[in-house]
Amino acid sequence: MKLSPRRVSQLVTSFREGREIPRDLFDRDVQDQTLALITDGLDKIFASLSGFEYREEYAAGKRNPLITLVVSERKMLCDDVVQLTFRAADGEQLPTWDAGSHLDLHLPSGRRKHYSLCGDRQDRSSYQIAVRRMPAAGGSWEMHELPVGAQVTTRAPRNGFPFVADERALFIAGGIGITPIIAMVREARELGIDWFLVYSGRSRSSLPFLDEIEGWERDRVLIRTDDDHGNPDAAELLQHAPAGGAVYCCGPGPMIDAVLGGFGQASATELHFERFSAPPVVDGVEFEVELARSGRVLTVPADRSMLETVRAEVPDVAYSCRQGFCGTCRTRVLSGTPDHRDSRLSPQEQQNEMLICVSRASGGRVVIDL
Ligand code: FES
Asked: Which CATH architecture has domain 67-154?
């Protein structure tokens, strides 16, 4: 019996969410002996840790050390989008990555920003990202001003938007949302799967990577711009959704919301998406947050995130993705009952920590270590 890529993807997702090892990989009602041995082995390892001083540097510090990167090249790809190439400051090879991965960059100003990798996955000597300069001053302006030779730090790439190569896939990219998608389409082309790309944006001059994309199979690519066709609706975005296949979407909030709203009518069976802005608060209620270090009590309105509210009081609070997957805004909870809405923390971690960009409380007050 062979496991299908989709089954493997389901297993990985359920393990990451619930930290549960399945009884049997093929969904039979029996205990798989190999998995039983693995589970026993893990039990023994964790039991031995209980009487052992386990220091933090044994974990993330050594496995995923800080890497200093140097800007080695800058190139404007289109209006307001700069492509930055980084190399390791020590000249060493860089950690590998796969389609959908991002870099969590620590900028010279102290800001942390994450950007999808969009260069050549086989090239271990450099990383490439593309950054659109947003209208409001902030991290994107700082990225645009980084000169060749500037240094930033990061850790090995992480992937919160993995591509599972199945037989058929529709890719939908909005503007700078092409950055994770282009790596996926390149892989789909290499693997020879049945794919289609819808690439949407304000105008042609706002779309990065057009040269490369227009060299791909013309019958598999739809480039559509708002200045010619108006804003896209769900039916147009999803018209090439493959029956029984997957849809991968990255773009601005309204595009993601349109795809989410129309996906029920499409014949595809899986939807994977990544926003590059904070998602709207759904079913929120007003609650209070107390900042333990200052004693300040803030009211978080039903339609605003805790992060937004806290930032007004603590402007340098750390955050990056604002979507509950990067872990940057992880904060210790001293009292109160959080309503956890992230996809990152394990149930154990959620007992005394929360990701304040998406998680909140169902009324009452939470006291956090800020
Ligand atoms: S900012 Fe990424 S998890 Fe909160």
From this structure: Beta Barrel (2.40)
